[in-house]
Amino acid sequence: MQRFHGQFGEDRILADMFPGAGPWTCVDVGANDGVTGSVSLYFEQAGWSCVLVEPNPELCARLRRERTSFVFEGAASSVHGVATLMLAEGAELSHAVSSIEQGAQTSIERQGLSVRAVDVRTAPLDTILEEAGAKPGEIAFVSIDVEGHELAVLKGFTLSRWRPRILVIEDNSLLFGNGVRHALASEGYVRFRRTGVNDWYAARSDREMLGSSPERDYIASMIRARGLMLRRRISRLLISAPVVGAPLGRKIRAARERRND
């Protein structure tokens, strides 16, 4: 039986929004290892075409082992070129912490992690999609998780050409950073949902996706998402607590595994 892998249930929601095999394509920018928290793995297994973008060479090697889809080894950005990717090392899941943004090294070191620099290729998402053979109008969703590089990715992505139905974009700005929202609004895309740390966008004209009250729906889902994040923080504290927290921590982990089945 197929399993869902999304960190906050994004793939489960998307599966309800796009029943059947398509023909649909999904784009996973910041695909990580292709399994851990993957929004796209479920859909690849369901027969979709997927485009996987990942700048970390070690993660790309695992992507090619674990996945059958097109893999672009490099960073989606606004221009063709080379950028320095700062990779965190020395902690559990540190493979998921990397960025080509200025200030990335300082940010990673503040978390108590060591940093390794790697030069990686950059290319506009337009070019990556062309290399992958993607077709305009057939992209169901684009997931973007690039640790602060979102605006550069969007600058290299011609929305009017590709017309993705849904954009799922990580946003850790706590509502104070409106750059992504304003950039997408200028292209006719509006927010309508939040899951965990991810904002969801659809074209203003796409009422099938947006519903009748996208802003109200966004606020309601944001409140739920904040509640979920708070519960997860409490769960992590209980799991790591000695003696008393250990049995409860095991129950929490077991419940999470059951939800993903």
H/I helix tally: 11
Number of β-strand runs? 11
Secondary structure category: alpha/beta
Order of neighbouring strands in the sheet with most strands: 3-2-1-8-9-11-10
- The CATH homologous superfamily name of the largest domain equals Vaccinia Virus protein VP39
- CATH architectural name of the largest domain: 3-Layer(aba) Sandwich
Order of helices and strands: HEHEHEEEEHEHEHHEHEEHHH
Low-confidence stretches: 91-95
The major sheet is characterized as: 7 strands, mixed
CATH topology of the largest domain: Rossmann fold
Structure description:
The chain has 261 residues and is of the alpha/beta class. 39% of the residues lie in helices and 25% in strands. It contains eleven helices and eleven strands. The strands form two sheets. The protein has a seven-stranded mixed beta sheet, sandwiched between helices. Mean pLDDT is 86; it is low at 91-95.
Concise description?
The chain is of the alpha/beta class and 261 residues long. Helix content is 39%, strand content 25%. It has 11 helices and 11 strands.
Question: Keywords, please?
Answer:
261 residues, alpha/beta, Rossmann fold, 2 domains, seven-stranded mixed beta sheet, four-stranded mixed beta sheet, 11 helices, globular
